[in-house]
Specification:
Layout lengths: L1 H17 L11 H15 L21 H6 L4 H31 L2 H12 L2 H6 L6 H21 L2 H15 L4 H16 L4 H16 L3 H19 L21 H10 L2 H8 L3 H12 L14 H23 L10 H4 L3 H18 L3 H28 L8 H12 L6 E5 L3 H8 L3 E2 L5 H8 L10 H8 L3 E5 L13 E7 L2 E6 L5
Parallel strand pairs: 1-2, 1-3
Antiparallel strand pairs: 3-5, 4-5
Length: 512
């Protein structure tokens, strides 16, 4: 019975996250880059350094390798057909791990079940698992690793310490942004718990990552630093249209995602809370605990005080960091603040379930669970379903449909090696690279962003003929739902194919 509850709840989360992908098979941007590199590893039994047959920008790949190496174990056709379900599978494992951690502490199925539900019912968690990226795997590894480290600091045991180092090494070799959240958390724990073990484990994991990759990880780390530096220089255009620039005052973007960005930009704390609504309950739980109120006697539920305080510090640190980054322009380059809370969804769910159970113990009424369910429904599930419909199902420009594949077919009929293509918007480049033999004006290198992108993205800064001539671009792939060709700073083009809003142009690099 105990096992069945956890498995069924994890499966329900899988269904919630994956249902839009049953009908929308080809969705995502980074997806195609991951599958392309995995295909090279599978075919050539090597890690690709430079990929000149795919990318025009002359820099070597510096993306963390572990997830792509994992994908290389699966057949190409299988990945193309099932890629929309891979992230939800990892999140189901994450959810099941949460269930068993809570049950192992409390020996209470209801508390463990509520923790799972509180985890799944978050818009950010649901949307992050909508396509094939490294974030769901990283979130899972983050929880595995930090729980192991907290168990070591709370209960002792060399095995847990070694396990935390190994898991953190795997995390570092999987996802770059996770390192930023990990650094913030490590510094916070070192300061507030006055222990060097957290910093020592982080440094040891970075060194181990460098050792097992024979130094390649240090190239990844340098690229990560340069990517942050590039965003520091370009962050004022973070939410700009690539062709039209920043929206004028009072102007609304036609893209619902950017309209949401515009809205939450004005209300930084709301952005973080909206992403993980249960963080409000988790913070309230910590406040009640530190005031010593009877309702917060969590040790009677099997959660030792030191472990509870660590979970609270985990949540508070990432929440404060997220709100701080969202609130102040001088640190916006460090990422979208709410995404830090993605790595705090795990402890948030635990604290939320403990809170609800303690309220029920003090006020034994079914209304406690009814109100909790309504909070999750209104604050989490309904917004998540709304975003899934608008961003995945209804937004044709974010998925690959018949018109896109018609364009891909046309490109593949052109002589191989002759198509050197730029795309507008830039997000078209990855799918074009994967499904055609074109070489695209894009990159798998963070360093290339700093060295090559600034004139073209996030906003076009120079005449396109000048940029195209520099990189030998001879073809443009344009989505006219995004921008019309007449809006572009471009001369000397000839339309050679159209399907729906997608047009392909031959470019005369001299502008004639």
């Amino acid at each position: 019975m105990v096992l069945l509850v956890g498995i069924l709840t994890a499966f329900a989360g899988f269904i919630l996250e994956s249902w839009p992908r049953w009908s929308v098979r080809y969705f995502g941007i980074d997806t195609w880059r991951h599958l392309m590199v995995a295909d090279i590893v599978r075919r050539e039994k090597r890690w690709p350094k430079a990929i000149p047959e795919k990318y025009l920008l002359p820099e070597e790949s510096d993306y963390p390798p572990l997830f792509r190496l994992f994908l290389a174990f699966f057949p190409k056709k299988f990945l193309e057909e099932k890629q929309g379900f891979i992230s939800p599978i990892f999140d189901a494992i994450h959810s099941l791990f949460l269930y068993f951690i809570v049950y192992s502490l409390t020996k209470n199925v209801a508390i463990a079940f509520m923790a799972q539900v509180a985890y799944v019912a978050n818009p950010l968690v649901v949307m992050e698992n909508s396509n094939l990226t490294t974030r769901p795997v990283a979130s899972m590894l983050f929880s595995f690793a930090f729980v192991a480290l907290l168990y070591y600091t709370s209960f002792g045991g060399t095995t847990m310490l070694v396990l935390s180092v190994v898991l953190l090494t795997a995390l570092i070799l999987t996802h770059r942004f996770a390192l930023q959240a990990l650094l913030a958390l490590t510094l916070s724990f070192a300061i507030f718990q006055q222990s060097w073990i957290y910093i020592a484990v982080l440094v040891g994991s970075i060194l181990l990552a460098g050792a097992v990759t024979k130094g390649f990880y240090f190239k990844v780390l340098w690229g990560h630093i340069q990517m942050l530096n590039w965003w520091r220089l370009n962050i004022h255009n973070r939410y700009a249209h690539q062709v039209r620039g920043l929206p004028k005052k009072g102007e609304k973007s036609p893209d619902i995602v950017f309209r949401l960005y515009q809205f939450v930009f004005k209300l930084p704390p709301i952005a973080v809370i909206a992403a993980i609504p249960c963080v409000v309950i988790a913070i309230l739980t910590v406040v009640w605990y530190f005031f010593g109120w009877v309702i917060a006697d969590f040790s009677r539920l099997g959660v030792p005080s030191q472990l509870f305080e660590s979970l609270g510090l985990w949540v508070l640190t990432l929440f404060v960091v997220g709100v701080f980054i969202r609130s102040f322009k001088f640190v916006e380059w460090a990422g979208e603040g709410e995404r830090y809370m993605e790595f705090g969804a795990f402890p948030t769910a635990i604290l939320t379930s403990l809170f609800v159970w303690n309220v029920y113990r003090s006020w034994p009424s079914a209304w406690v669970f009814v109100l909790f369910g309504l909070f999750l429904l209104v604050g989490g599930l309904l917004p998540a379903l709304f975003l899934q419909k608008k961003v995945i199902i209804d937004s044709k420009d974010r998925s690959l449909g018949k018109d896109m594949f018609n364009c891909f077919d046309h490109i593949n009929k052109l002589p191989k090696g002759s198509v050197k293509m730029a795309t507008i918007p830039l997000g078209l480049a990855d799918s074009t690279m994967y499904f055609t033999h074109a070489t695209v004006f894009s990159t798998d290198s963070s360093l290339a962003h700093y060295n090559h992108y600034s004139d073209f993205f996030p906003v076009i800064q120079k005449p396109l003929n000048e940029i195209f001539s520099r990189y030998d671009v001879n073809t443009l792939f344009l989505n006219e739902n995004y921008a019309r060709v007449e809006e572009l700073p471009l001369k000397g083009y000839e339309e050679i194919f159209q399907s729906g809003p997608y047009k392909i142009f031959k470019i005369n690099q001299n502008g004639n």
